[in-house]
Every structure is written in C-alpha cells, then in structure tokens.
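Quick one, tokens below. Sequence please?
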C-alpha cells in the first residue's frame, strides 16, 4: 500500500494544479473593455464639476447643500505622469485639496473594487482617513475617520462613475487599483 500512496500523491497534485485557475496578475486579468477604454467613447458618462478643470475628468462628484466634493484627474494617468486630486468647496470656494500639488496618485490613493460591485478610493491626510464609496446598487458616500477614532459620513446619492470602464483603466494604469475579496 505505501507504493500506491507514493504514486497517488503526484497524480493528485497534478490534478489539483490543472483544476485550479492560474493566479493572474492584474495586467493579464484586465478585460479588453477596460484595457481599451478611451475618453472619446466614455466622456459623456462623467458629469462636470465646477471643482475640476476643462482639461480634467470629474471621476466622482457629490453635492450636498452648499458643499461640493469631487475627484478630479488628468485624462491620462500612469504611475509617473498625470494627477488625481480630491477637492472640496463650501459656497463655491475651494476649502480643501488633496494632495495640495498635482501629482501622480500612486502612493497617495488606493482604489478598490469589491465582489458586490462597489468601488472606493481611499487616502489619508494628517491622520484623517477618507473613503469615497461608490456603491453599484445604492447611494455613494464619503466617510471620514478622525485620528481619535470618531467618524462621520456624508451621504451623496447615486453616482457610479467609479465603475465606468475608463475610470477602471485610469486606476489600473496609475497603479492604485487593489483587488479586494469580500466574499469571506
């Protein structure tokens, strides 16, 4: 019987290797509809924001009374070029910009997609943790966690521009897209 066990294990290992899907890098797993997304075919999905320039994409925006919050980005972003900024205004005056200077988003922002279709962009500034949550089937929000652990949420209504293929392409090419498996 020991000889049979020695012969079975290699076949079992090969069988499992063939049955399991290969671990794919983000590049090889990128769908053509995302990889080939162009501004010319997707630009109409992005409503403009007064916080973003004419040469920028309003990736996400939220207006609550006299306050507006937007993610503004260059139309081309890579790990070394382009920019993305979170901007907030009160009564039309910009009161917060992160980062203060336009620069590539790698190392400053994290973009995540979830198995349920939601997407988020996160960043940290002076100990405050910001999360822009764009729900596929629900309202968007901004969550801010203070250094002392207290938090607040701003409800924004439906948005869903973080799910547009062109946004996904920008997040991938800029190197800030992290996959999140929330199926646990």
């Amino acid at each position: 019987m020991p000889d049979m066990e020695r012969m079975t294990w290699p076949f079992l290992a090969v069988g499992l290797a063939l049955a399991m899907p290969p671990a794919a890098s983000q590049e090889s797993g990128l769908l053509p509809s995302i990889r080939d997304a162009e501004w010319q075919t997707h630009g109409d999905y992005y409503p403009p924001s007064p916080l973003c320039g004419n040469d920028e994409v309003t990736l996400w925006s939220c207006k609550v009374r006299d306050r507006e919050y937007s993610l503004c980005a260059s139309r081309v972003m890579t790990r070394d070029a382009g920019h993305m900024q979170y901007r907030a205004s009160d009564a039309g005056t910009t009161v917060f910009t992160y980062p203060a200077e336009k620069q590539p988003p790698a190392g400053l922002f994290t973009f995540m997609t979830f198995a349920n279709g939601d997407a988020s962009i996160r960043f940290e500034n002076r100990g405050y943790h910001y999360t822009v949550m764009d729900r596929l089937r629900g309202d968007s929000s901004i969550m801010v966690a203070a250094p002392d652990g207290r938090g607040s949420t701003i409800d924004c209504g439906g948005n869903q521009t973080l799910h547009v293929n062109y946004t996904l392409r920008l997040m991938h090419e800029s190197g800030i897209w992290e996959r999140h498996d929330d199926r646990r």
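Helices lie at 2-19, 32-35, 39-42, 165-173. The first helix runs from residue 2 to 19.
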